[in-house]
Amino acid sequence: MKQLxxxxxxxxxxxxxxxxxxxxxxxxxAGAVPARISPALSEPAAAFVTIHERGxxxxxxxxxxxxxxxxxNVRDAAAAAALxxxxxxxxxxxxxxxxxxxxxxxxxxxxxxxxxxxxxGRHGIxxxxxxxxxxxxxxxxxxxxxDETQMLEAVCRKANLPSDAWREAxxxxxxxxxxxxxxxxxxxxxxxx
Length: 193
Hints:
Elements (H helix, E strand, L loop, with lengths): L5 H19 L14 H4 L3 E8 L2 E8 L6 H14 L15 E8 L3 E2 L12 E6 L2 E5 L1 H7 L3 H11 L13 E5 L1 E5 H7 L4
Antiparallel strand pairs: 1-2, 1-3, 3-8, 4-7, 5-6, 5-7
Helix pairs in contact: 1-3, 1-6
């Protein structure tokens, strides 16, 4: 994955924030098009947008559209995270100022033929079996303090599969890596003045 420079990260975060504001105010995010897009943000890449409010998860949606430009995936995932995450009520306009955003840019997933190749904290994981599918981002292992087995069990439960389904040959596992950045870190590393 091509690393995004600080200016690209700032622009993606601004796109996500603007998309959330427009969506929450019931506007069309399709009209939220930045005046200038850097070449790196015009490259196709999948993305997740995670919303926190006062340190607690408030929404997280990803778009695994690897053929779509990165900035468009971020724009659309941000609006969906604010309004369509089934675990939460839609974000209200009164909450906008308290939201902190995090973006994960994903490499395409690759098959994991042997679960022993999974590295918690480095790899994100996708599990598929029958009509069941779920994904966990790499940072979930670090945030939850999970090792490889705990992460594999958690993604199976998220897919409504038995927690040990990852051990079975009929279960498909895929891994991916991602680049993750948030508003607080980007602000902290931005030059002052």
